[in-house]
């Protein structure tokens, strides 16, 4: 297992809420004021909220919360509960009539894991926000990772359980942290140890996803999506953070194969708390490393629920 958690970045709070019976959940990151934020969305089937606002040319510079959730498009309702909580706490973009909380979100597809009918909703999002803490450090089957699975190119019968992973890299005063809900169709690797750690499991052995593709056996319409956040205490504007998010996707590519397919909506938010001068190339490069480590931790920390996946 790799060290660190995204709350290592001073001022960041994380909250989780989940329904284990339904196999789904929500993770909410609440950053300190004065943050800047961007996003890079890849894959052919994204589900997001308020990502256009994070483009460098648009007005708002930071966010009041970032939300990762299960539930596919239904799970986008969770952000409304987060907005409710932020409004109660007086946090949001100031307008003439009051405030408008800025909440961006990405969702993953977990509807086939346990219950199709129970998804993250307004109440679950509100509770996740209220649970947010600077001391939160749980990984595995928690929050947005509750219903996450990997190795699904032959269907759920051969899939393995995944979850939520996080990791931090520190270089002097500079901190770069990742958190990810790993829900991939393909094979999962611990990049630094050069070994496969999850994927299609058949007769006790891994079946390479690309071999399945080669034989045209991949299940059409099997939906997935890995969603994550890279955060740093570096001073970076939205344009620079867009590049950091782009470079961090290299962490996905090193650790997930295949990735960014038409069945994925892979998304990475990048967030800076703007405390430390740092080179963007270093932040992006170590961001990819932190994301690879978080992906490995999502497997290492996950355990089966009720023995349904191993």
The biggest beta sheet is recorded as: 5 strands, mixed
Strand order of the largest sheet: 1-2-5-8-4
The number of helical elements comes to: 5
Unreliable residue stretches: none
Total DSSP E strands: 19
Task: Calculate Rg over CA atoms.
Answer: 18 Å
Shape designation:
globular
How would you name the oligomeric state of the polypeptide chains in this document? single chain
Class per helix and strand makeup = alpha+beta
Q: Can you give the mean pLDDT?
A: 94
List the helices and strands and how they pair.
Blueprint: E1 13-19, E2 24-30, E3 36-41, E4 48-49, E5 65-69, H1 78-88, E6 93-95, E7 98-100, E8 103-107, H2 122-130, E9 149-150, E10 160-161, E11 164-171, E12 174-181, E13 187-190, E14 195-198, E15 200-202, E16 205-207, H3 209-214, E17 227-234, H4 238-255, E18 256-257, E19 267-276, H5 280-300
Parallel strand pairs: 5-8, 17-19
Antiparallel strand pairs: 1-2, 2-5, 3-19, 4-8, 6-7, 9-10, 11-12, 12-17, 13-14, 13-18, 15-16
Helix pairs in contact: 1-2, 4-5
